[in-house]
Amino acid sequence: MVIQRTALLKTPTDNTREVAAFDVEGTLTEGATWAGLRTWLEANGQGELFKRFLRRKMLGIMLFRLHLIRDERAFKEQWVLDELRLFAGYSAAQMAEVGQFVVERELWPQRRPSVVAEIEKQKQDGRRVLLVTGVMEPVLAVLADKLSVEAIGTPLQYENGDFTGEVAAPINTGIRKVEQLEPFARDGKIYAAYGDTAADIPMLQIAQNPVAVFPDKKLSKTAQANNWRILT
Q: Which residue, 40, 84, 91, 113, has fewest beta-carbon neighbours within 10 Å?
């Protein structure tokens, strides 16, 4: 078995420059990978496959809409993991094509100009910009290339050159983002971090300059309590 890793980090443990870390979905863009994957299936004659997937998820969708799901983040993560299995058997090249489609049709059109401007400012100031996100690497590679930055995402698992339908590591969210950023920290801190939900609080807490971007209710409350910058 081979784990397909996209070259998203040029020098994985280099901490000679200050680092600014940006979440992607909800922060950099209002788009969602799962929606882009759905659109790809529909545009490539696989719409019925997604409809069958949707029917299996119908009870969970109803509970989610009624706010009866206790852990909404876990529900969303499991949704993406299950949706990815629809792509089992795709080659690395095909998954790269899917990634290009998702970015061009979903994530990039819904980017937040204010956050793109923040990324450019951090780059101009000489900092190393990392997209740190749960987004799967074939999608993230395209987005990182567009912005000329580096990234840490969720790697996919391949066997004999084909995607198995599984991820090769836990989805890169919550405390896992902090673990991924440890090699880049100076005295336990990075220069700046940008996130939009409560799941990003651990990452924001290790930043000298935390920024809550269009924050959800819990993050907004935490940001106000700690006098963090809020970007809306």
A: 113
